[in-house]
Structures are given as structure tokens and as C-alpha cells.
TrEMBL record:
Residues 6-151 form the N-acetyltransferase domain. The keyword Nucleus does not apply. The keyword Isomerase does not apply. It comes from the Bacteria. This is GNAT family N-acetyltransferase. The lineage of its organism: Bacteria, Pseudomonadati, Pseudomonadota, Alphaproteobacteria, Hyphomicrobiales. GO terms for molecular function: acyltransferase activity, transferring groups other than amino-acyl groups. Keywords: Transferase.
Amino acid sequence: MLKHDIVYLTEDTSHDAAIELINEEAFGPGRHVRAAARIREQGPHDLSLSFVCTDDGETIASVRMTPVLAGGVKAHLLGPLAVRPSHKNRGIGRELLRIACAAARRKGSEAVVLVGDPPYYGPLGFEKVAWNALTFPGPVDPARVLVMPFAEDTHARLKGVIAWRDDEGR
């Protein structure tokens, strides 16, 4: 049995090349044309809410959080979330998700939004957003738009455009 030294760290710029490789493996060349990628192109992700997992010093998984305004909700867009094939099905993605969502909540985010698989994300605290409530900058399957709300009125305010939000006054 192999011993692993699994460590979760806040992302920094030294992880960029490894994260690009992990996302290429997980999502392929079409990842840049997806609606969520269009939002991420509008501005930078929040490094303080983005995390990597390393195994014996090698970056093997990552999750990024991008500040967005989702209708009337000050939220974060989760993703991409990806784990190297060699480390899948070990709970690493779920732990990265847990760490990132907890950090976003502590930072004052009202919700975490993502486009993903309801059977995977539902048990982790994500709920479906009302059909076509959010308008993305490209096609998206409304059945895959999910939210982890941090306020009671989140669903009522998730109506309108979802776009990058400038938290730094840029």
C-alpha cells in the first residue's frame, strides 16, 4: 500500500501550470467555450478562496472561486473543480469543495453558484436554481445551474444576469 502525503493549500501563482494541466485532462479543449468560462474571462478568480491539493508535493487537484453578481446575490462561481485521474474517487474533490465553500461563506459571500451534475453536488449542499432564473453569457443547461445558499432569501434574489464582480475596485 502506498503512503500519500495529502495536503490542502491556498492556491498561489506557482500552481498555475499544474492547474492548467489538471483542467485540460479533466475537461479537454472545449472547456474555454463554456458559459462559466465566459464569466471567468471577465476578471480574475479570488486566490484567497481557491485551493489546491498536493500529494507528496505534486499538485493533483484544484478548485477556483470567482466573485460574481448572480442577479441580486453577491456570490462566488465555483469551478473549475478537477482532480487528476490518478487520485479520483478518494474524496479529494469533495474536500476541496467543502474548504472553498466554507471560506467563501466566512468572507461574506451570500452563495456559491456552479454549473454541474446535480446527483454529485446535491448531497454536498447544492440546490437547483429556478429554471432560467440566471442568464449566462452563453448557452447553459438550466437543469445544471446549482446554488449553495447562505441566506434565506437567496433563491428569491437569484434572478437576472450572472457576471464577474469586482471586489478590488478595478
